[in-house]
């Protein structure tokens, strides 16, 4: 009855919602630091815009996302025809796999990295070539060594989720330049807006040079719109035209489009979220050092810390205290926790609970 490949795919297991944890454990307060969300949420301007558009819910959304594309086009310095919108950038990974991968083809990716790359490859009957990280980041030399005649897509998560590490400018440029032009190179920049490091490469700079380059970005992270699901791809007009052929109509809802348009205009809110994230990471680093816990320096809004014990057991004990984090066993890192940066009080609450648990 079912395709064989479906039995090889594990369903995505989302982090526990706050309401469920409260109900299950009888807790009044729960701190969620598990899903790399912006603790500030969307800006006030976004909230006002959403309220003003509630009367339009009976009307189908703009299937082309015309106004949002124009705003993005101006901000990014690309043509509107080089942009494709999706219900989160993870929906766009499905479009990419559908356009490029035939049964028996392969796609190269790091492990651990964003799990959707593996899933969408398998769904199309492709073979994921998962290569271990080197010093917690992508080993692009290993990527190059594994390219063969059936390679169709290369996935690079930069910064990488879950480790938070980056591939630096020269290394990424040289790698993309070495990849045969018939292979799609996807650079996922979901956390780009959090980064100031001059060594971090914005792959958008190379779009005109590499016709096989696809860049992914999102409104889910620093813009605080995770619930509305808005992500986008930037690539050559030819690639975007092909991706549009498999994109379902009206895939980005009306309120999501409105929210994204107003979020783009609110640079002050982005700046505030960025500053909060920087302070939160510094607080975590200092706390982990005082506790003697190794951690991986992160360029995102999360950090992985080695608790030197079974992370699942630590996760369960933290849950009893109303703290939700991500255990690293799902990433093949059984003694690590991935912790999202939160509000100052939430960060302190997590550290206090972690000290008690350990």
Structure description:
- There is one protein chain.
- The protein has 358 residues and is an alpha/beta fold.
- The chain is built from 12 helices and 13 strands.
- The chain folds into 2 domains: 4-32 and 268-357, Aspartate Aminotransferase, domain 1, CATH 3.90.1150.10; 44-266, Aspartate Aminotransferase, domain 2, CATH 3.40.640.10.
- A 7-stranded mixed beta sheet has the order 2-8-7-6-5-3-4, with helices on both faces. A 4-stranded antiparallel beta sheet has the order 9-10-13-12.
- The model has no long low-confidence stretch (mean pLDDT 96).
- Its EC number is 2.6.1.9.
- This is Histidinol-phosphate aminotransferase.
- The modification N6-(pyridoxal phosphate)lysine is found at residue 221.
Task: List the SSEs and their pairings.
Elements: H1 18-25, E1 31-32, H2 44-52, H3 66-76, E2 83-86, H4 89-100, E3 106-111, H5 116-123, E4 127-132, H6 140-145, E5 151-157, H7 169-178, E6 184-188, E7 213-218, E8 231-234, H8 237-246, H9 254-265, H10 267-291, E9 295-296, E10 302-306, H11 311-320, E11 323-324, E12 326-327, E13 336-340, H12 344-357
Parallel strand pairs: 1-11, 3-4, 3-5, 5-6, 6-7
Antiparallel strand pairs: 2-8, 7-8, 9-10, 10-13, 12-13
């Amino acid at each position: 009855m079912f395709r064989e490949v479906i039995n090889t795919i594990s369903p995505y297991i989302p982090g526990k919602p706050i309401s469920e944890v409260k109900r299950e454990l009888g807790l009044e307060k729960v701190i969620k630091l598990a899903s790399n969300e912006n603790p500030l949420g969307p800006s006030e301007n976004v909230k006002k815009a959403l309220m003003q558009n509630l009367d339009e819910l009976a009307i189908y959304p703009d299937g082309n996302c015309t106004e949002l594309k124009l705003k993005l086009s101006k901000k990014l310095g690309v043509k509107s025809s080089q942009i494709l919108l999706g219900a989160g950038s993870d929906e766009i990974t499905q479009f990419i796999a559908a356009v490029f991968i035939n049964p028996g083809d392969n796609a190269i990716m790091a492990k651990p990295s964003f799990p959707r790359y593996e899933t969408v490859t398998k769904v199309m009957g492709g073979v994921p070539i998962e290569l271990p990280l080197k010093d917690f980041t992508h080993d692009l030399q290993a990527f190059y060594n594994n390219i063969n005649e059936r390679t169709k897509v290369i996935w690079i998560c930069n910064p990488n989720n879950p480790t938070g590490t980056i591939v630096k400018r020269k290394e990424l440029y040289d790698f993309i330049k070495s990849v045969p032009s018939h292979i799609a190179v996807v650079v996922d920049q979901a956390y780009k807006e959090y980064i100031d490091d001059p060594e971090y490469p914005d792959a958008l700079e190379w779009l005109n040079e590499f016709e096989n380059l696809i860049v992914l970005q999102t409104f889910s992270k620093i813009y605080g719109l995770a619930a509305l699901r808005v992500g986008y791809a930037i690539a050559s007009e030819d690639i975007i035209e092909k991706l549009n052929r498999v994109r379902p109509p009206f895939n980005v809802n009306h309120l999501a489009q409105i929210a994204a348009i107003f979020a783009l205009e609110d640079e002050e809110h982005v700046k505030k979220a960025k500053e909060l994230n920087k302070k939160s990471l510094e607080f975590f680093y200092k706390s982990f050092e005082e506790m003697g816990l190794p951690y991986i320096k992160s360029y995102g809004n999360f950090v992985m810390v080695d608790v030197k014990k079974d992370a699942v057991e630590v996760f369960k004990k933290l849950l009893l205290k109303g703290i939700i984090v991500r255990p690293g066993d799902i990433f093949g890192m059984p003694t690590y926790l991935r912790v999202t940066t939160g509000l100052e009080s939430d960060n302190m609450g997590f550290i206090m609970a972690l000290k008690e648990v350990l």
